[in-house]
Amino acid sequence: MGKSLDPRERAASHAPVEQVDFYTQALKASEEFREGYKGRLNVVKSSQMPFERSPQGLIKHIINERMDTKECCLDMYQQFLPPGKASGKHRHLSEEVFYVVEGRGYDLHWDVRFDCNHEMEFSWEEEPSASTGRWAISSIFRPIACISISMPIPRTRRASSSSTAAS
């Protein structure tokens, strides 16, 4: 049989506190989202992909959360850089995929230092190193045109070699 709950814990768990309706609100928000989702764009035509002059250069948004499409997790754009020019530096904590459509160039990355003490802290070195890592910052990219796709990093844990050897 299971162990009984300590009477002090039982009393504390039933003590009077403020009442909320977070769960009910979440269900309502989910229902409203699903209703609105039906009317979102499923196919985006080239004429519906807006251009933007950004610090990264001229970009044409293919998918963006503000375009009211059914895709809610990806940000995709086509980036146009004149020959010999570079994009601006940018940082992010998500994966990024580049496809060079035309021209050629290079991409500089450097690793981020991640500390999880009392608060999460992320910091980057001032200049890129020779290594590239899973947490990376895109610094300079010099193709004539490319497509960039950003997506969240899936949270996975890998067993260390010592724990796998022990099993």
Describe this structure in words.
- This protein is of the alpha+beta class and 167 residues long.
- The chain is 17% helix and 32% strand.
- The protein has a five-stranded antiparallel beta sheet with strand order 1-2-3-8-4, with no helix packed on it. It has a three-stranded antiparallel beta sheet with strand order 6-5-7, with no helix packed on it.
- β5 and β6 form a beta hairpin.
Distance between the termini: 31 Å
Named CATH topology of the domain at 46-151: Jelly Rolls
Structural class: alpha+beta
Which CATH architecture of the domain at 46-151 is right? Answer: Sandwich
Unreliable residue stretches: 129-145, 152-167
| Arithmetic mean of pLDDT | 74
* Largest beta-sheet characterization: 5 strands, antiparallel
| DSSP strand content | 25-35%
**How many β strands by DSSP?**
8
The rough form would be described as flat
**Roughly what percent helix?**
10-25%
CATH class of the domain at 46-151: Mainly Beta
Question: Roughly how many Å is the radius of gyration?
Answer: 24 Å
CATH superfamily of the domain at 46-151: Jelly Rolls
What is the spatial order of strands in the main beta sheet? 1-2-3-8-4
Order of secondary-structure elements: HHEEEEEEEEH
Number of helices: 3
